[in-house]
């Protein structure tokens, strides 16, 4: 699946040149915009992987638009284009959450590697977000299992070890994941074990 990119610049000639370079490089250009406001609307609609955006534009400049885009559409990376290489711009771009920036005029030799770097950073961030999400889910499931185990211990006068063994036994017999079984116990009570085919014993 090709990465989707939007191109934002108030100069239609520059937009056309960048589009051609990207398409020749095998990328999908999902849309174009001529100022920051149009860029925000376009990105909210097409949800591209990357926005290549000029800094100096009418209505809303690229840095202000980048701030808003990063808040509204966390999955879209931003590569800024500028006619200047001032340190202040680099600082502003970094604070706006920009993945990379290029100094105009843009050549294919500069553009495609910068796009690859920006997309690579996006992939790393996506992977990190997924890892964090799975970790949070695992922690929540662990908490749920611990709480359910406590209910089983209390209801059936079992030791911690035996309560956990009973939950695992029922989970395996019914093919219900342990986390799902724990959620059922917390919702409906420890009697769920008996209803699910588990016999409680000391």
| Major sheet size, sense and barrel closure | 5 strands, parallel
> How are the strands ordered across the major sheet?
2-1-3-4-5
How many DSSP E strands?
5
CA-atom Rg in angstroms = 26 Å
Low-confidence parts: 198-202
* Multimer state: single chain
Shape: elongated
The percent of residues in helical segments reads: 55-70%
User: Helix/strand/pairing class, anyone?
Assistant: alpha/beta
Mean pLDDT: 81
How much of the sequence lies in strands comes to 5-15%
Query: Helix tally?
Result: 8
Query: What's the order of the H and E elements?
Result: EHEHEHEHEHHHH
Spatial gap, N to C terminus: 56 Å
Could you characterize what this model shows?
InterPro entries: ANTAR, Bact_response_regulator, CheY-like_superfamily, Sig_transdc_resp-reg_antiterm, Sig_transdc_resp-reg_receiver, WH-like_DNA-bd_sf. Residues 125-186 form the ANTAR domain. It comes from Paenibacillus violae. Keywords: Phosphoprotein, Two-component regulatory system. Residues 4-119 form the Response regulatory domain. The chain is of the alpha/beta class and 202 residues long. The protein is 61% helix and 13% strand. The protein has 8 helices and 5 strands. It has helices at 12-24, 36-46, 62-72, 87-95, 108-156, 160-174, 178-188, 192-195, and strands spanning 4-8, 28-33, 50-54, 77-82, 100-103. Strands 2-1-3-4-5 form a 5-stranded parallel sheet, sandwiched between helices. Helix 3 (62-72) links the parallel strand 3 (50-54) and strand 4 (77-82). The longest helix has 49 residues, at 108-156. The protein is elongated, with a radius of gyration of 26 Å. The model is unreliable at 198-202 (pLDDT under 50).
């Amino acid at each position: 699946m090709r990465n989707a990119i939007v191109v934002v610049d108030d100069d239609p000639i520059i937009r056309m040149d960048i589009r051609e370079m990207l398409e020749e490089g095998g990328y999908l250009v999902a849309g174009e915009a001529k100022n920051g406001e149009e860029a925000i609307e376009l990105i909210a609609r097409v949800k591209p992987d990357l926005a290549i955006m000029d800094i100096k534009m009418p209505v809303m400049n690229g840095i202000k638009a980048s701030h808003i885009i990063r808040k509204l559409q966390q999955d879209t990376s931003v590569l800024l284009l500028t006619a200047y290489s001032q340190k202040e711009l680099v600082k502003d771009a970094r604070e706006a959450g920009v993945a990379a920036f290029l100094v105009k005029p843009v050549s294919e030799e500069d553009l495609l590697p910068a796009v690859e770097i920006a997309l690579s950073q996006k992939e790393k961030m996506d992977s990190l977000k997924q890892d964090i999400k799975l970790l949070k889910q695992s922690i929540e499931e662990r908490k749920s299992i611990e709480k359910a185990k406590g209910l089983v211990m209390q209801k059936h006068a079992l030791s911690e070890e035996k309560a956990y063994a009973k939950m695992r036994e029922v989970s395996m017999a019914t093919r219900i994941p342990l986390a799902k079984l724990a959620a059922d116990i917390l919702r409906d009570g420890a009697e769920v074990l008996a209803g699910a085919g588990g016999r409680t014993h000391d």
